Amino acid sequence: MSIKITEGSNVLRIATAYAPQCGCTDDSKEQFHRGLEMFLQGVDEGDNVIISGDFNGHVGSARDGYESRHGGQGYDARNEIGTMLLDHAEAADLAVVNTFFKKKNERIVVEAARRKST
Question: Could you tell me which Gene3D superfamilies the record lists for this protein (predicted)?
């Protein structure tokens, strides 16, 4: 879901996203990422963009080549979905904003189950 707010020559596009979870089919994951790419391709240069949601991936704590997109305040290791998210951010000149703010570990980990934290 997305909205476009215009005031004079200023444009703000706000979108929400919820990526398929790890148990979903590869087709549904690819469909989500194609939809995200289509949304970003429809954004005009100069538009301001906010995408909020759960991308069901980990961008990790290391910036590793994404210094302008990743603030270095993530959690644990990056996974494949986290890399795709950072690639989308790079292509669209966006940033994963919550990685620019230091948080306590209990604020970062939103789900804990037996040896797994996400």
Answer: Endonuclease/exonuclease/phosphatase
